[in-house]
Every structure is written in structure tokens, then in C-alpha cells.
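Thread amino acids onto this structure.
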């Protein structure tokens, strides 16, 4: 979500794109994608003039670090590399700068509600957030659907990853 514009979004991923269904896709990569998507949505809205400096905040130290990184090791996950490349082009095309900052997870309740409570309608979720964490919810909060270009890109990116082969092995301690 964007604290300034109040725009928030959620994307219910198809079953085959969720964590654990694809090889090597970790929660930190989803946090990274979330930051990219939030900035992309703001750029697409036309509210980000060239020369702006955008602040991306998150509670994943890895994702926050990846946002300002200009290179990745060869052994990095292909999804991470593709997302970073796409993000760099978004920022260059919009002619904006980026600053990333980590903050504690307990201060990230709105993002947690948006990503976890997908069973609630946008109206129900807005009411829940306003009553549970009013100090973290912008007054102009508006949960909007993602633009088709964004949701299509994310789904396509995730589906391009190899499937995990089911293991018949019983986990042990």
C-alpha cells in the first residue's frame, strides 16, 4: 500500500503460484515483489512526477536490501533477477529515484492484513484494519484491484518457475 495516496492492493494468487508450490520461491521474494508492485501501481496512476524520490518500506531486511541493489550474484533465483531487472526499467522509464527502508514487522499490520485476510471483502478488511490498527491505516485508504498489466506480469513471472516435484518422503525431526 502507499501511505501517501492511500491506495492499497491485494492479489490472490492462483494455487499454482503460491509459496511452496514452486521451486525456491521464498517469502522474501514475495515481499520483494510486493514492494515492486506498490511502486509500479503508483507510477501507473500518474501521480509520480519525473524526478521524484520514492520511499519503499518493508519488514523484510532482504527485500529492503534488494530494492537498492544494482547487481545480484549469478546463483540468485531467476525470479529475483527478472523482477529486479523489470523494476530497474520501471524506475528508469518513470525517471524516479528510490530509497528503501526496513521497519519492524509489528509496525506492518496493514500489509499483513492485506496479504493474509483474502477471505474478507475490501469493505470488511478496511473496517477490520481501521478498528484493529487505526494508527497504521491512512485516512484515505482505498483497496483497489491491481491493473491488469501488473497482475498479468506477476502471474506470468511466477508460472515461469519450475514446479516442485512432490516428495513421498515423510518428514523427520
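Threaded sequence (173 positions):
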Amino acid at each position: 500500500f502507499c501511505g501517501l495516496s492511500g491506495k492499497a492492493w491485494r492479489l490472490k494468487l492462483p494455487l499454482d503460484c503460491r509459496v511452496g508450490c514452486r521451486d525456491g520461491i521464498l517469502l522474501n521474494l514475495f515481499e520483494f515483489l510486493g514492494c515492486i508492485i506498490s511502486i509500479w501501481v503508483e507510477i501507473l496512476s500518474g501521480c509520480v512526477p519525473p524526478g521524484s524520490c520514492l520511499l519503499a518500506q518493508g519488514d523484510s531486511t532482504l527485500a529492503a536490501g534488494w530494492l537498492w541493489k544494482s547487481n545480484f550474484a549469478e546463483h540468485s533465483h531467476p525470479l529475483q533477477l527478472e523482477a529486479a531487472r523489470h523494476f530497474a526499467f520501471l524506475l528508469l522509464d518513470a525517471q524516479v529515484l528510490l530509497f528503501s527502508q526496513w521497519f519492524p514487522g509489528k509496525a506492518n499490520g496493514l500489509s499483513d492484513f492485506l496479504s493474509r485476510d483474502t477471505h474478507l471483502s475490501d469493505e470488511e478488511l478496511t473496517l477490520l484494519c481501521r478498528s484493529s490498527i487505526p494508527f497504521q491505516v491512512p485516512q484515505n485508504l482505498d483497496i483497489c484491484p491491481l491493473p491488469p498489466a501488473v497482475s498479468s506480469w506477476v502471474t506470468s513471472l511466477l508460472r515461469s518457475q519450475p514446479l516442485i516435484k512432490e516428495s513421498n518422503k515423510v518428514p523427520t525431526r
